[in-house]
Amino acid sequence: MFSPTGELVAAARRAGGGVGAFNVITLEHAEAIVAGAESAGRPVILQLSQNAVRFHHGRLGPIAAAARAVASASTVPVGLHLDHVDDEPLIAQAADNGFGSVMVDASKLDYAGNVAATARAVRLLHSQGLWVESELGEVGGKDGAHAPGVRTDPEEAARYVAETGVDGLAVAVGSSHAMTTRTAVLDHDLIGRLRAAVPVPLVLHGSSGVPDGELANAVRGGLVKINIGTALNTAFTAAVRERLAADASVVDPRKYVAPARDAMAAVVAHLLTVIG
Ligand code: G3H
Ligand code: ZN
């Protein structure tokens, strides 16, 4: 069943656990994420990034409706989140398209610009009842903010949350987007200091590159929403490659997309048990 992101994050936080938020690119991603969550018996968040919307010819409606329908048909609670958005007209479409939350990504702006853009989006999204996540802008763009060497300062993070009114904060603690090896080392001391300084739930981006033990420690240390994308695509693409290499005569996409979807579901189920 569909469940608002704010409720899923709050429930995970109360329980001292984490909630997995997985990136949807195709309908099969959404199906796989929900299948994995159902087999793990855990809630989950489906998230669509602005980049994924661009892939769907810039049309939010069809892929959002598909993801929302997959969420509604699920036997476990499933949230729907719009991820890494810097396009204000797209932010304005979130509520009408069934999203329970948005990550406002003003990280390319300087501190003052980030605060102004994020606070503006927060006012709109809160008036529509949505939960809002964002990240600090001083450390730069998407990959810059989550490059392994970049760190979020606890004092500044606390001030930023107070000035913007966001409900969740993405923090840079050693992970990096789009890693295909699980070799990231997190700064657990910093996670503890951020948790003490920042009143809202903390979000880990670029979690595909974080090994199981590090992820479990991060959740124990106070990270609540755990964003994962690349790990699913690695599994999907490996399965497709294997099928096509095994049989050059295949033309029906179901023959290689079905095992790819199963491979993603297995990754989701495993990671949800790690962060649960
Ligand atoms: O917002 C999405 C996540 O940060 C995904 O990052 O693809 O490196 O797992 P990842
Ligand atoms: Zn991210």
Question: What can you tell me about this protein's structure?
Answer:
This protein is an alpha/beta fold and 276 residues long. It has twelve helices and eight strands. Strand 3 (78-85), helix 5 and strand 4 form a beta-alpha-beta unit. The longest helix has 23 residues, at 253-275. The radius of gyration is 18 Å and the shape is globular. Glyceraldehyde-3-phosphate (G3H) binds next to strand 3, strand 8 and helix 11.
Set out the fold topology:
Layout: H1 5-14, E1 19-23, H2 27-40, E2 44-49, H3 50-55, H4 60-72, E3 78-85, H5 88-91, E4 101-104, H6 111-127, E5 131-135, H7 142-145, H8 154-164, E6 168-171, H9 188-197, E7 202-204, H10 212-221, E8 223-228, H11 230-246, H12 253-275
Parallel strand pairs: 1-2, 1-8, 2-3, 3-4, 4-5, 5-6, 6-7, 7-8
This protein binds glyceraldehyde-3-phosphate and zinc ion.
Q: Give me the count of strands.
A: 8
Report the helical percentage.
Answer: 40-55%
Query: How much of the polypeptide forms β-strand, as a percent range?
Result: 5-15%
Principal-axis shape equals globular
Query: Termini, distance in Å?
Result: 19 Å
Instruction: Please trace the helix and strand order, writing H or E for each element.
Output: HEHEHHEHEHEHHEHEHEHH
Radius of gyration: 18 Å
Mean pLDDT: 95
**Low-pLDDT ranges:** 137-142
* Helix segment tally: 12
Q: In terms of quaternary structure, what is this?
A: single chain
Largest sheet: 8 strands, parallel, barrel
Q: List bound small molecules.
A: glyceraldehyde-3-phosphate, zinc ion
Spatial arrangement of strands, main beta sheet: 1-2-3-4-5-6-7-8
Determine the structural class based on helices, strands and strand pairing. alpha/beta
